[in-house]
Each structure stands twice: as structure tokens, then as C-alpha cells.
Amino acid sequence: MDTQKNPKDSQKQKLPNWFNSWFWWLILLLLLVWNFASYWPSTKASVSVPYSTFIAQVQAGNVAQVKITGNDISGTFVKPILWPTASAKSAATQQPGNNTTTAPKATTKTKKSAPTEYGKFETIFPSVVGDPALMPLLKAKQVRIVAANPPSPWIATFLIDGLPFLLLIGFFIWMARKGAMGQAGGALGFGKSKARKYTTEDVRVTFDDVAGAEEVKTELEQVVDFLRSPQKYHRLGARIPHGVLLVGPPGTGKTLMARAVAGEAGVPFLNISASEFVEMFVGVGASRVRDLFAQAKSASPAIVFIDELDAVGRRRGAGLGAVNDEREQTLNQLLVEMDGFDERHEIIVLAATNRPDVLDPALLRPGRFDREITMGLPDLKGREGIFHIHVRDLDLAPDVDIHTLAMASPGFSGADIANLCNEAALMAAEKSHQQITMSDFEEAQDKIILGGVRPLLLDEHDRKIVAYHEGGHTVVAWFSPQADPVHKVTIIPRGRALGVTEQLPGGDQYNVNKRYLLDRLAVMLGGRTSEEIVFESITTGAENDLVEATKLARRMVTRWGMSELGLIAFAANESQPFLGYEMAQGRDYSEATAARIDAEVRRLLEDRHQAAHRLITEHRAKLDKLARALLAHETVGREKLEEILGPRPPAPA
Ligand code: ADP
Ligand code: MG
Ligand code: ZN
Q1: Which of 82, 138, 572, 632 could serve as 115's disulfide partner, Cβ 3.0–4.6 Å?
Q2: CB of 389 closer than 6 angstroms to any ligand 1 atom
Q3: Is the distance from CB of 467 to CB of 630 less than 8 angstroms?
Q4: CATH code for 380-450?
Q5: Which residues are catalytically annotated?
Q6: If one looks up domain 196-374 in CATH, what number appears?
Q7: Which of 209, 214, 256 to mutate to test the pocket of ligand 1 (most atoms within 8 A of CB)?
Q8: Residues 237-290: pLDDT tens digits?
Q9: 152 vs 361: CA distance, rounded Å
Q10: pLDDT digit string (tens) for 546-581?
């Protein structure tokens, strides 16, 4: 009994796998074959003869036995007869009276078919006219008679016509039920996780391909070591984190790093983007998660990588309607799977997000993504390393200096740098350069930072306004000791801007002080102030400056405590993307405080506006000179600026 029970159990467990996917297809195929076969002319070892031939054979004593089923008569001959193979029927109808044991000679139309010997025959009893002489004849010739009931026509019709349809209907009902039950897993593969399994051979990426993330590599070293030799950790009873969350802005190499971990450890890499979990069928997400982890368990030790975790991992209960049900189910399933790891699991779940603030707190609890690793924008040394990786396959001219390139690209992410290198190569190809030169890199950089050059026809007056606007930014920046130095200024329209004042920070800045921000606000307002002074009116071109300046001022007041309101951070959830969440939580300060914040922001902006006003009025002559230079040359670089504006005031210590 036991031996029988076990295979059955395992069969039942396997049901979701094989039963779902191809069992039904097999059934359908069999039905098709059945249908086909029932219309196929049957090829039998017996021959179909006319009734008269049958009677003649009986009279000749050549029939040993007959079987009568309704109107069908079949039986065996004593001696086999010769009968033409092909078109036996048409031959027979032409020779109804033929009663020889050899083939009919006058097979006019169907000649050339070699006669074959048949030991069995079948024929049809002429039931309409009847043949009362048949039974006496059979008895006289001592033929063995077997009678059978004709098959019930109802059963026959049902079997042949009805059953396939019933099965089809059953199939569709089953599909619909599956869907409704929220596990459309299987039949047509809706629920299959899209996690592509990268095997060890596929992941060739190693830590050497990721530059400028040394601390991250150190932190992940342990994960790699665990995946390489899990036994060591099990023996010591060490608990390895289930989940590691990589956090950082887009393009900082989170995906790359996850693949590098798999490559270093030499384990399978199952990768899925969280947005793929959520699709049009309800319940698909949850079944995908289940499937993904089932795959991982059978491949362990393995790495599961969930990209853009925030797509499913957003705070639950944050929406205004019930539209989140699907996502919440998926998230719940993910939590269940992660809790389901036992002590000896050998699966590490890596996830990446650039919005850790929106993640559901439940995801970050111990046992889930309890380790968070930040991948920030690369610093100078990191950028240099990334440049080196991405120019590996490029044909560089000798004048290309990686250090200078890295210096000139603060705030670039790894992806930006990869893009820059590619743009430079494209630029060189476009100009049919033999090798990629430094000027190709510079041009590519301008294109990326400022957008492509935009052909735009401006009349003389508009150009003048733009020249004074950009000149205003430049003059304020030049004479504000803390502001970032101006690298160049141009009135060539690029991207969405009519002109650009390009400032380059001296080094990487992790922390900025209040005086720097105040100067920066003044620079932002400088363009508008200049228009005000020179033309005594303001154009809409200054709109974006004002928006950005207001944002910065508000942040200074509410987040960084840089105002009269003092040391307090308001609006910690400024970046909360969920309308519903904020409405539910409410503001954590009163209307009166809100009014004071607004007043403080306005005061700050007004103060900075006056500072810009003072600087521009003081250096009005230089501004005019700069505007003329801009109108003449369109772009003014660093050296020319020094010539026009004179030396910059030294930064106070
Ligand atoms: P993320 O997942 O953080 O958005 P990706 O890993 O997709 O970023 O990075 C995109 C591309 O940028 C990578 O394929 C790689 O070419 C390049 N890149 C990003 N960061 C680095 C880095 N630290 N070192 C080398 N290349 C990098
Ligand atoms: Mg990514
Ligand atoms: Zn401006």
C-alpha cells in the first residue's frame, strides 16, 4: 500500500508543473488524432465485397464464418480470394454478378491494380428489400453464425461528436477558474516568472568591471564568500543576510554590481525587474514571485536579483483607491517567500532601488532586506576608474587625458560616463577622425550636459535679452566669492534653454555651507535681475530660474534650518510621491507655521535678489562689455571672461 501511495503523492505535488503546462495540450492533440482517424478511410485486412459476391461465395462453400452486426456482415473465407487492391468497390459495382474466386477481368477503369489475397470480408445486408433466403442458405452451407448487438447509436454519436466538445468546454472552465483563483499559472504560461536564469557561463562580469565602489565591494565580499563555500558558514552557525538592498541614483551600477557578485561567486543569477511582476492579469505577480523562488531553490546556491524593487515594494495602503490590490498581493508573496527561507538557505536576494524612502517598512525588517548598501555617485578617483573601463575598447588619440575628463565630469554617474565615451566615439566617427580625440570628448560632454544645439531663429532684440540674462548670471557668479567658478557662457540655444552659463565646481562637494547656497541663490536670480536693470522689464525666459531658486530657498528653510525659524526640519516627506499617503498623514506643522515658512522663503529670495542687484549695478560696465562679446561670438570661455571681468575676488577663508 505504501509503495503505491508514495508515487501518487509525488505526482500530486508535481501537478502544477507538468499537469498544468502540457497535459492539456496532449489531450487536445489526442482528440485531434482521434477526429482525424475517424474520417480516414479505414485500411483493413478484410475486403469489402458486394452482397451478391458474398452470396456466391457462400454458395460455393467458401465462407467459414459470418458475424452479423445490425446490417453489417463480416466474416472469414475458407480459402482466401483474390481481389483488386485499389478501388475494390468500383470494380465490384461494375461486376456485380462476378462470382469467381479470381479477380474480375473486366476492371475497365481500375486496371493495373495488382489483386491481393483476402482472408476476411465485409458486406452490407440489403435491409430494405430483405433476403429471407440468407439464413437457410447459411445453415445449409454450415457457416458458423455469430450475431452481435448493433452499437447503440446514442453512445456512438456521443463518443464521436460530443466528447471532444465536452472536454474542450471543461478545459476552458478550468482555465477560467484558474484565473479567478488568482493562479493563472500554467496552461498558457501566464504565471511563469520571467526571471531569466543566467548560468555561470553567462555572467562574465566581475568586480574588475565595476570601478569606484570599493566600499560596496568590500561589503559584498562576504556574500560572495558565502555563496562560494556555504558549508563554512553553516558549520559555524553564522546567519547570512537574506536580502541585500542596493540603493543609489540611476546609473550608478547597481545592476552591474549584482551581476558582478554572481560572476565572482560563480553561481546562477536569476534576474527580474519588479515591474515585470505586475502585469495585466490579477494574481500573476504573486505566482511569478512563487515561481521565481522555486527556480532559485532548485538552482541554489544562487542569486535572485530584483531590479527596481520600488515598483512592487511601495508602501502598502498608500493609494487612494483599491488599485493597488495586485501590487500588494505581489509584495505580500515576496515577504512570504523571504520568510520561508530556512536557516540553511543558500539563496541571496539582491534588490536595487533608487527610492528607498518609498519602500514598505515591512521589506526592511530583519530577515528580509536587512542590509542596505549605498551606491552613490562616483568621486574623482571612481570616475577615473570608470573612464578607464569604458575606453578599454576605444581607439584613443594620444591627446586624450583621462584625468582631465574625470575632473570635468563632476556629478556624472557610471552610466553617464559610459554614455559619454560612446558619444565621443560617435562624434569621432561622424567627423571621420582616425582616432577619438580630446575635442570629441569635449563636444560629447557639451551635448550631454547642455543638450544638443538647437537651431532657433531669434531676432536682434531677443538675442540681446538672452545675452544680458546670461551675462547677469555670469557677473553675479564671478563676483560672489563662494559661487562655483564660471567655465563658459553661451547664447547658443541648447536643449530647452535659450542660453547657458556653465559653472564647474572646484571639487566634489558632499556638504555645502549656507554661504555657498546664498551665493548660489543670488546667481540663479542674477539673470532675471539683469533683465530688470537693463530693460526695466522681465521676460518669461527667467521662469525656470525662479522655480529652481524658490525650491532651493524652501529647502534651506524647511530642511536645513538655515533661517530665522531656527533649528527645525519641517516637511520631512517633501519627496513622498503618494498623494494618498500625505493626505492621510497630514502635515506635521500648523497653518501658522506654514505661513511663517512662506514668509521666510519670500524674505530669503528678496534678500538674494537685492544682493544680485547690488553686484550687477556695481559692475554694469563690465556686464555691457560681456553682453557685446556674447552677441559677437555667442560663446565666451574662461580666459576671455577673465579679460572682460578682471580677476575674481578671493574666497574668504
Ligand atoms: P543602475 O542599475 O544603478 O541604474 P546600471 O548597473 O544599469 O545602473 O549601469 C548602467 C551602465 O553604466 C552599466 O552597464 C555600466 O556600463 C555603466 N556603469 C555604471 N556604474 C559603473 C561603474 N561603477 N563602473 C563601470 N561601469 C559602470
Ligand atoms: Mg539598474
Ligand atoms: Zn537664467
Answers
A1: 82
A2: yes
A3: yes
A4: 1.10.8.60
A5: 470
A6: 3.40.50.300
A7: 256
A8: 877 777 899 998 888 999 999 989 988 888 888 888 777 766 656 667 778 888
A9: 69
A10: 998 999 998 888 878 777 766 666 654 455 455 455
